[in-house]
Amino acid sequence: MRIGVVGGGLMGSGIAEVCIRAGVDVTVAEVDAAAAERTEAAIMRSLERGAKAGKLEPAARDESARHLAVTDELEQLSGADAAIEAVVESEAVKRQVFDRLDSILPEASFLASNTSSVPIMKLAAETSRPERVLGLHFFNPVPVMKLVEVIRSIMTADEAVEAAKSFAAETLGKTPIDSQDRAGFIVNALLVPYLLSAIRMYESGFASKEDIDSGMVLGCAHPMGPLALADLVGLDTLLAVAESLYEEFRDPGAVAPALLNRMVEAGLLGRKSGHGFYAYDE
């Protein structure tokens, strides 16, 4: 089996890694040669960390690496059995990707998006076969998190859904759950208003970021506080999901706080940039 992954950022490289560790041939398509080089290096580093931590045998690390190809030409995905899009959380960019994938992969069993919030039907509308387009929403960090949301649009065929669920569960060992095609799907529709509420509380001066996070970790047994989790998700991604939720539902709880807007404008995106609500060494 061969899978195409479009975009090798945090999520795309994670998706590619779990695929190659499962013995699936993967071709990752990046925007340019420099990005392709960074993506390949990031995946190799992650495999090496797994080996050093004893979670991956050296032989399995080497075998996984042999399943990976990285390119800066989307056309190199030609012939793949399916594709997963994991580019920036922008509806316009994702629509362009699906328009191109439609012609490059006419026989693929499914074309999936890893979007956190963009309605799948908007992406399917860019293709000539909307019945094979669906959402496969993985969670960060992909090699660790077991959940995958499977989102079908009003046009998605049962065959495409079953192929995607089988791939997620039987090939990758993930746990798929079914979601309707609504902005935010299941997890983010519940999670994002909670994260925004925590940001508003911090912004208002009601409590410190440390006390907000400690309150939810120690008082509600959450594994991570909301502001630390927002940093992990990426503040730009959080903002994009919030905007998508508000556009669809007009729920005041989905309105992004001014502080979130300012932080994204300043490039303080969380762990990915080295600084968000907290500072990070990496």
Quick tags:
alpha/beta, 48% helix, globular
How would you briefly describe this protein structure?
The protein is an alpha/beta fold and 282 residues long. Helix content is 48%, strand content 14%.
What's the order of the H and E elements?
Answer: EHEHHEEHEHEEHEHHHHH
Query: What would the principal axes of the Cα set say about the shape?
Result: globular
Helix fraction by DSSP (H/I, runs of at least 4): 40-55%
Strand line-up of the largest beta sheet: 3-2-1-4-5-6-7-8
The beta-strand count equals 8
- Poorly predicted segments: none
- The pLDDT mean sits at 95
Strand content: 5-15%
Structural class: alpha/beta
Q: Radius of gyration, Cα only, in angstroms?
A: 19 Å
Oligomer designation: single chain
Tally of contiguous helical segments: 11
Characterize the largest beta sheet: strand count, sense, and whether it forms a barrel: 8 strands, mixed
Note down, in words, how this protein is organized:
The protein is α/β, with parallel strands linked by helices and 282 residues long. It has an eight-stranded mixed sheet with strand order 3-2-1-4-5-6-7-8, sandwiched between helices. The model has no long low-confidence stretch (mean pLDDT 95). The chain is globular and about 55 Å long. Helix content is 48%, strand content 14%. The two termini are 34 Å apart. The chain has helices spanning 10-21, 33-52, 58-66, 91-104, 120-124, 158-171, 187-204, 209-220, 226-233, 235-249, 258-265; strands at residues 2-6, 25-29, 68-71, 82-85, 110-113, 133-138, 147-152, 175-179. The protein is built from eleven helices and eight strands.
